[in-house]
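fwd from M.: "can u put these together and see what the complex looks like"

so here's what she sent:
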Amino acid sequence: MSLEKFITRIQEEFQDVVKGTINPDTNYREIIPWNSMNALLLMALIQVEYNIELKVEDLNSDISFREMYQKFIQPVE
Amino acid sequence: MANRVIHNCKLVAVTAVVPPTVFSINDYLIMQEAERKQFIEKVGIEKKRHVSPGMTSGDLCEAAANKLLDGQKINRNEIDALIFVSQTRDHIFPCTSVILQHKLNLSKSCLAFDVPLGCSGYVYGITILAALMESGTIRKALLLCGDACSTTVSYKDKTFFPLLGDAGTASFFEYDQKASPIYSSLHSDGSEYKNLIMQGGGFREPWDEDVITEKTRWDGIPRKGYQGYMNGMKIFEFSLREVAKNIKEVIAFAGCSPEAIDYFILHQANLLINESIRKQLKMGKSKFPISLATNGNTGAASIPLTMVSEMGHILKGKKNKLLLSGFGVGLSWGSLCIETNDIFLLPVTDFK
């Protein structure tokens, strides 16, 4: 799964709330309105689709989509 | 050893009763319109039932039990045991089960006690009851699972209030040496108890001014001290970490495969959690009945309520291998494999 595919998947999941195109280097909380529902959706997407065991604390930092991909998904690819 | 196999116990009948008052998420103005739309779509709850003031989970279960006992024409003197599973018992003491022994006109030789578990309660309740019945000294028994959790949370808590609905259920079990074995796997982890808790009003934090006063708490949500708190992210994390693993564990313990299970009846937590668990198990949607849309999360009642509301045509007149899994407050979770054969079910009815 490339970074581009990850971004596409994010775009699909949050199509109702994301405005415009996602820049991989943008802080994800600036793109996805940050509330408990969207946090759960993001956690479900990463954990279930990529079979990665995430902790809540993993999503509590201001990181970009690229950093998120590099931190969680790339190591298990 | 959390895993065990129990013989000689047959699930014969299940009934469910809900309060008549319908609460629609579209009327929940604490959420913005877009939030309500997203909630209905992603969490899967559009409507739910709420008890009226003075109505309890004990009342709902009493109605469900009467419906079952009358429907099956069971001699009430022959009920040897009654277990009531709920987080919303009628009183701190005595046990609601003992009150129900009297209200249901059961024999004084009937064993009765409460199990104060929530979302894992049906699986725990079956395991406890089946273990009691295995030797044959208890021949007929009732497991009553009900909750009125809508009364336990702040209306202003939009992370918790819109999830919870109320229901009461009754399940009837018989000693039967021909019954297929029940395979059960139960777990608990108290290290995370604060993530789902009704903090005040017990003996750790007795009733005082703080407990009865609504104020904005540390998480920014206005609630009274006795009203429930849930860390939704942590509960979600727990559910994804433990439940699929537990389901696989009990299926392996039962010596079968996920494909051999006819239906996976999960506690109805919310659609996002239940769908995530289903995807972890790599199983199709058709094997996972869902009753959330019209009932919400009904705690200990959610599994039997789903059996009655969604599976009447499936469970009647046929053999089915079922996987039941409950998980939540405690934290407590468990799964069991049970083979059923022609369960007696009546449609869900409103409490009168």
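replying to her w this: Chain A touches chain B through 19 residues (CB under 8 Å).
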